[in-house]
User: Fold this.
Amino acid sequence: MLRVSADPIDASEALKQFEQSAKGAGAIVTFSGQVRPQANSGKVETLHLQAYSPMTETGIESAINEAKIRWSIDQICVLHRIGDMAAGETIVFVATASQHRRAAFEAADFLMDYLKTEAVFWKKEGTASGDQWIEPRADDYVDAARWAKKETI
Amino acid sequence: MRKILYFGRLSDITGCQEEMLDIPSEIETAGALRKWLDDRFHATGALLDPTVRIALDQEIIFDGTPIQSANEIAFMPPVGGG
Assistant:
């Protein structure tokens, strides 16, 4: 399941629904990301998320399909906010269900790295000193590079 | 008329997120369009930055790609959500 929407994300409700739909899987991993209250330039007043539909959704769907090819995964749920949100609000929710925990952990980690560095979103942080567009950090790219497929000779 | 979109930090420079534009016929490739728009907005190279990718009708392309058949052209600085 994938949803990119300006509607608030209720992570505990999303988990409850995911547990229902993934009944019998054996292992469920979830990650929820929240808007940080503190930026380098001060206290965060708003976070604005921009998407480019349907390119954003198509890209995330491909990452979900890639995760299902790489790991034995029963179900995946990705919820992502767009629009304006406040500190503490949930910006992203990822859940994976598998027969065993390792696949569920790795697939969730892979999807989060995709969302941080490749998903078609742009983020703008608003603080008392002004607005600033935020782009991925060098560490985010290093994290994402862990999943690059090694060439076989 | 073609729809041009400017995402992320680029919209601060262009002053708009999208616009409908008549592109002169001599602007044949994505790279030429980059240069033409950068001059038009006095963007001092912001649109020429190699980290800014271009999508034609929602598909990422290279600077040498012809743009004649595209209806929608997007300028995309580095992406990232979460």
In short: Chain A touches chain B through 26 residues (CB under 8 Å). Chain A has a mean pLDDT of 94.
